Amino acid sequence: MSSIELPAAPGTAQIEGARWLAEKTRDPQKTLTRWRAGTAAPVPVGDTIVVVRVLDDRLGRAAFHTLQERAPQHLGPVIANQALGAVEFLLPARPAVWQGTGTALLDGARESTREVKCPPLDRRASGRMWLNRPSTVPGFGAALTDPFALARALDTARAQLAQAGHRLTA
User: Fold this and answer.
1) Cα 164 from Cα 150, distance rounded (Å)
2) Can you give the chain as a three-state secondary structure string?
3) Is there a contact between 118 and 34 (Cβ–Cβ < 8 Å)?
4) Which residues lie closer than 8 Å to 143 by C-beta, 6 or more apart?
5) pTM of the model
6) Which of 85, 92, 82, 90 is nearest to 116 (CA)?
7) Cα 145–chain centre separation
8) Which of 167, 158, 6, 152 minimizes the C-alpha distance to 82?
9) Displacement of CA 23 from its chain's centroid (Å)
């Protein structure tokens, strides 16, 4: 796995994005307190957000960079899950869009997919760190990754990695 530097200190839109994300939990104040203390906090998935976990770190990071370069307006919160060697994209719960092989959907339908551990904005916790922090867009609320843009970015990343001779692990 490559070493990445943490992003600069969070701005106002990212702090508001973290508050929005905390409001999705059973106890928003407890979630914010955990983040201030530097620990990850569980955020339920299924009702308003789902998580697409890209099971191969190289594929997930390549898709992340593709979105960053080609469609930054469609990029929402993204977590590097170093413990699993995966990248996790937070998306709206609807519409559901198949993201292809090498991905898992955390949608609350099964016990193992009912939550995602989210790190504090400014540091690693529980083997996780933000590649792209949660943020808000004035007048629109929280920005989540567009599922159609993610599907295109994953297709592009798969093709680029295959052309470079990389074999995906998942």
Assistant:
1) 21
2) CCCCCCCCCCCHHHHHHHHHHHCCCCCHHHHHHHHHCCCCEEEECCCCEEEEEECCHHHHHHHHHHHHHHCHHHCCCEEEECCCCEEEEEEECCCCCCCCCCEEEECCCCHHHCEEEECCCCCCECCEEEEECCCEECCCEECCCCHHHHHHHHHHHHHHHHHCCCCCCC
3) no
4) 17, 75, 76, 77, 134, 135, 136, 137
5) 0.89
6) 90
7) 8
8) 6
9) 17
In tens digits, the chain (170 residues) has pLDDT values of: 444 444 456 677 788 888 989 999 999 999 999 999 999 999 999 988 999 999 999 999 999 999 999 999 999 999 999 999 999 999 998 877 778 888 999 988 887 779 999 999 889 999 999 999 998 776 666 789 999 999 999 999 999 999 998 887 65
Q: How far apart are the C-alpha atoms of 148 and 135, rounded to whole Å?
A: 20
The count of other CB atoms within 10 Å of the CB of residue 70 is 13
Q: Is 144 left (phi over 0), alpha (psi -120 to 50) or beta?
A: beta
CA distance 142 to 44: 16
Q: Looking up tokens 């070493």, which residue turns up?
A: 3
